Amino acid sequence: MRGRTAAVIGSIIASATLTLAVPGAAHGATGTFTYTDARNVQRSLNNPLDNRCYNIGRAYDPVTNNTDRTAELYANRGCSGDVQVIAPNGSADDAAFQSVMFTDD
After folding, report:
1. pTM listed for this prediction
2. How far apart are the C-alpha atoms of 99 and 6, rounded to whole Å?
3. pLDDT tens-digit series, residues 37-89
4. Spelled out in words, what is the top-level CATH class assigned to the domain 27-103?
5. Which of the two ends of the chain, N or C, has the fewest CB atoms closer than 10 A to its terminal CB?
């Protein structure tokens, strides 16, 4: 009986440890963010992750944020420098940026 009890307790501890060690699913925007790159090619990010900096090179308008998150457009790589904010399901016709981050504001 002791062997069985120890096995059951060990199994419970192992399950609890595994549950705590596995990270939860990453949260992100639902939808598509589109912009025009330096070669005048339209690009998009689909379902981008929250609070992750996307370095996309030189990008220009038009910019359309068809996501459910706020898009923060940064003048420099690494999400630094001046920032322009585009609300969920918003757009901008005067954007020039190099990186973008999506936030759940």
Report:
1. 0.74
2. 54
3. 999 999 999 999 999 999 999 998 899 999 999 999 999 999 999 999 999 99
4. mainly beta
5. N
